[in-house]
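Sample intake sheet
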Amino acid sequence: MILNDTKSPIKLQDFIGMNLEELSKAETVYKSDLFNSKTVIITGAGSGMGRAMAVLFARLGANVVICGRKEERLKETAEGIKKYCNKEIEYTPLNIRDADGVEKFMSDTFSRHGHVDILINSAGGQFSQEAIDFSRKGWNAVIDTNLNGTWWMMQEAAKLWRKNKVAGNIINIVAHVQRGMPQSAHSCAARAGVIYLSKTVSTEWAEHNIRINCIAPGAIKTEGVTQYPDEALKEFHLANPMKKFGEAWDIAESAAYLAAPSSRFVTGDVLTVDGGMAQFGWVWPMGKPDYFKN
């Protein structure tokens, strides 16, 4: 398939990325026992990048706990990891917008495992629309999930790490926002909030031995990209100089780096994994407006 041939039919399977079996067999640069005895919580792990991270951390020996809004997707991830990786993981349905629910989930998970070492916030969501047309409900939904939900998870984990006087590590999946995100202004606002929140508390929480970093993905093959129109999908990979999509596995291995001792002197930073898109181009998720075509 020639992705930039406007006459070629779109095949959505070409944009969805690796399935559970493929993730279980993907090559990794990391040792299989890297996270033995470590417990990691991953939000939004029912699909996409969260699912890829759940597979990788399970393969590397971690005790994996996943959560998300859709129980059937969490169950599918857990069953796939058991089938293909011979590893049991835990899953809990959770809406991260619910601060009380997050508090209970964190308390229960810490109590059950004795300690949690790593929190990866991958849950999030947005829809593409011109900012001038956002409804109040739509704006609030994206901000509440991507910013507030991430914060509830971060704060509850940090409270328990401080209480137990143990080290913690937070990894937030965001976006590169330096030049804005046309047609995704609500998500840009929320992700920028998470980035600068992470930078701020990485300083405040250093005394508690808690590190916080972010990963900013570019155009990554996941189920999420299938919401976009054909015109946009054909152009996504052309927004970076490598002229290709990344895989969710690229984000998973980046998360492993930030979770491992390899990044012990890294905090308050953003790891950009986008094929160079940040300095080269931009994706128009609804298709490029006529105003910018000439």
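Comment: The two ends are 27 Å apart (CA to CA). Residues 37 and 228 are 40 Å apart (CA to CA).
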